[in-house]
Amino acid sequence: MKLGLIGKGILKSQAPDLHCRLGKLVGQVSSYDLFDGNETGFRGLEGSLGFMREAGYQGTNITFPFKEAALSLADTIGESARKIGATNTLILGESIQAENTDYTGFMSAYRFRFGQTTPGEVLLIGGGGVGRAVAVGLVDLGAKAIYLAETDVERGRKLVEELKGFGVQASLLDTNAINSTIPKVQGVVNCSPVGHVNHPGCPIDVSLLQPQQWVFDAVYVPANTEFLQGARKAGCKLLSGVDLFVFQGLDAFKFFTASLNLTNSLDREAKSLHSYYMEKLFNTI
C-alpha cells in the first residue's frame, strides 16, 4: 500500500514511521513518501495529487499549509472534513475522498489524557487547518467558551462565527489581549506553527500559566516544545502534539485500509503505539 504526506517543512515528520509501523502490526506492508513544498522539484498540491493517483497511491495525509486548499480538490467530502472546512486525509482512487482526522484524533487524545473532564473556557492560538479541527473538537467535548487569537483577522472572524453557529460562546481576541486572557481560562491551546523546528519560539508567556490549567500544543517536532516545558514547570496538565499525532494517524490509517476491515485490530494497538511514540519522541512516558 502506497501512502504519502504533502506539506512544507515535513522532512523530519514521523508519519512515515507511524504508518509503516501500523502496516506491519496488521500485516499490511506499506510505504510512505514525503512531498515537501520547500524542496526542489515539488509539483505543487494539485500536481502532487495527480502524480500520486497515476502512481497508484491509496491515500495521502495533508499538513501545513495545504489543509484548507486540499478540500477543494476532493470529489467527496466526509462529515468530519465538511464540519471543519479542511482536510488532513485524502483517500485516493477513481475519486478523491476528504476526511479530517485532526478533529477525531484530537478528541480521542483529549479523552485518553483527561477522561470525561470538559475543557471549560479555552484560549486557542491559531485558527488555520489544525486550529479549526481542534476548535470544533473542543465544542464537541463540551467547551464553555473559546477565545481565539489569530493573526489573520478575516480567517479568525470566519471561524468565530462558525463556532457560534455550533452553539458555543466564541470571540476573536486582539493579540494584545492574550496575556490578560491566560489567567482567566481553564485551557490554553497552541495550534499555530510557533514552536516547530522551522518556527522556533513560544506562542505565549508561560510565566502566566497556572497549575490548575490544562494545555495542548499541536506541534510535535520537537515534541518537548518551549510551551510544554513551561507548562510542565507551572504544574499544568499536558496534552502534547505527540498525542494528537498518534491518534490522528491511527484514524487516517483506518480510512486508508477501510476495505480491509482492520478497525478492531488497529484499536487494539492504540495504547502500545501511543506509549512507543511518547517514549521515542519525549524519552518519557
TrEMBL record:
Q: Name its species.
A: Marinobacterium aestuarii
Task: State one Pfam family annotation.
Answer: Shikimate_dh_N
A GO biological process this protein is involved in?
aromatic amino acid family biosynthetic process
InterPro entries assigned to the protein according to its UniProt record, in alphabetical order: Aminoacid_DH-like_N_sf, NAD(P)-bd_dom_sf, Shikimate_DH-bd_N, Shikimate_DH_fam
Where does this protein have coiled-coil stretches?
none
- What broad taxonomic lineage does this protein's source fall under? Bacteria, Pseudomonadati, Pseudomonadota, Gammaproteobacteria, Oceanospirillales
Q: A cellular component term (GO) from this record? A: cytosol
- State the Gene3D superfamilies in the record: Leucine Dehydrogenase, chain A, domain 1, NAD(P)-binding Rossmann-like Domain
Q: What is the protein's given name?
A: Shikimate dehydrogenase substrate binding N-terminal domain-containing protein
Q: Where is the Shikimate dehydrogenase substrate binding N-terminal domain?
A: 5-90
Specify the pathway.
Answer: Metabolic intermediate biosynthesis; chorismate biosynthesis; chorismate from D-erythrose 4-phosphate and phosphoenolpyruvate: step 4/7
One molecular function GO term is: NADP binding
Q: Which UniProt keywords apply?
A: Amino-acid biosynthesis, Aromatic amino acid biosynthesis, NADP, Oxidoreductase
